[in-house]
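Troubleshooting log. The previous structure file for this entry was overwritten by mistake, so regenerating from the original sequence record. Sequence copied from the archived sheet and checked twice against the printout by T.R.
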Amino acid sequence: MMTDRAMTDRTFERIETLFDIAAFANVNVLIAGCGSGGASVALQLVMSGIRNFTLIDNDILGPENVIRHVCGRRYIGQKKTDAVADVLHDRNPNASIAKIDADIMNYPGLAAEIVKADVVVLATDNEPTRYTINEMCIRHGVPFVVGRVFTRGIGGEVFAYRPPEGACLACLEAALQRTPFRQGIREIDLVSDEEREKVYGMEIAEIKDSPGLTVDITFITSFHTRFVLDAVARRLGERPKFLDPIDENYLIWGNRPVHPFNKHFHLQRTALSPQEQCAVCATRSTAHAV
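Regenerated output below.
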C-alpha cells in the first residue's frame, strides 16, 4: 500500500530547501526562440520550479540540430515548440505550456504575449527580432534577458533589461562599440544575410564550426537562466530565499583564450547604465502613459 508521502508529488523534493518553489507558481515566462539556447534555458527554468511558459518559434527540428539541442533524434521533423514542450512536460507534467508556431517578426499577437509575461527569454538568432522585442518590452515595462553565443563558441554574452530605469539593448550596443570585446568577434548576427548563408552552409573555413560545442553553449545558457531567475525574483513581493540579487546587468564570458579573451573562462561583469541620447530609451517616457 502506498504511503501518503509516496502519493504526493515529489518532483521538487530535492530543491525545495534551496528557495521557495511556491513563489514561482504564478510566474509567466515567454520563450522567444526555441533553438539550442532558448530550449536549454526553458529546461533549466522548468527544473527550477517555473511552470507557466509560452513558446514561440516557427522552425522544425532537423537532424543537424540534435547534437546541440535539448530535444534528441526522436523529435526530428517536429515543430520546435512541440518538441520543447514535450521535454518540459517530461520534467514537470504539471507545467502549463502555450505553443505559438509563428515567425516572431510577423506574429500580430507578439505585443499581447509580452504584456502577459513576467519576463521574456530573448533567444532568437537575429538582430531584427531582438530589437523588435527590445522596443516592445520598453514600451510595456516588461523585463527581458538576452543571451548570445559568439562564433565558434569562443564565448558569449548575457544582458538583462530591467525596467523602468535599466539600460536597453540599444544602450548595450552603443557601449560595446567602445570596448575591446567586440574586436575580433565575428558574431554570426553581425554579418550580412549572404555571409550568414555561407556560414551555415559551412563554406567559410574560418567559422565552419559555428556556433560551437554544446559545452560552449551551456556556459552561456546557465548564465542566461540565472539572470532570468533574478528578473523573476525582482517581480515578486518577496525574493525567494538564497536567490540573492545580481547587481550587474551585463556579462561577457570567454570559453578559451581566443582574441579578444586572454585566458580560459574569462569573465567580465558590468552594471550598464542607460546611454545618453538613446533613441529607443527615449520612448520610455511615454511607455506607461498609454
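The two ends are 59 Å apart (CA to CA). Archived copy saved in two places this time.
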